[in-house]
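Catalogue entry: protein
Contents: sequence, fold tokens
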Amino acid sequence: MRDTIRNAVPSPGIKLTDRSALGLGAGYVLSWGLRPPASQAPLSGLPAQESSLLRLADGVNRRAQALRSRRPALSGLAREAETAALQARGAGDDESLAQHLLELAASLDDALALEGA
């Protein structure tokens, strides 16, 4: 039984043949050579990262514009949302403003959803 186990374990003196070394080298070179350049990466060309508050303000502003065009009767809510989005652009990371923007986003979503009902 021990002889079978010894024969199954490769010896530490395994040598690569010239063909296998050439194959390994060619595979490595091709794997790097077939990759697109970094300028074509999926995330290249994106703007610099904005804060989450600014992304939220942009989303609120888009919702307000959609509400203004679809339901002109609710232009007061859209105006309030646009004003809060402008304030967020000038403010730092203000938690109370973020909470207000979240509430406005929910209100705008509800108003836009009622349109379809």
Notes: The mean pLDDT is 78. DSSP finds five helices and no strands in the chain. The CA atoms of residues 71 and 115 lie 8 Å apart. The longest helix spans residues 95-116.
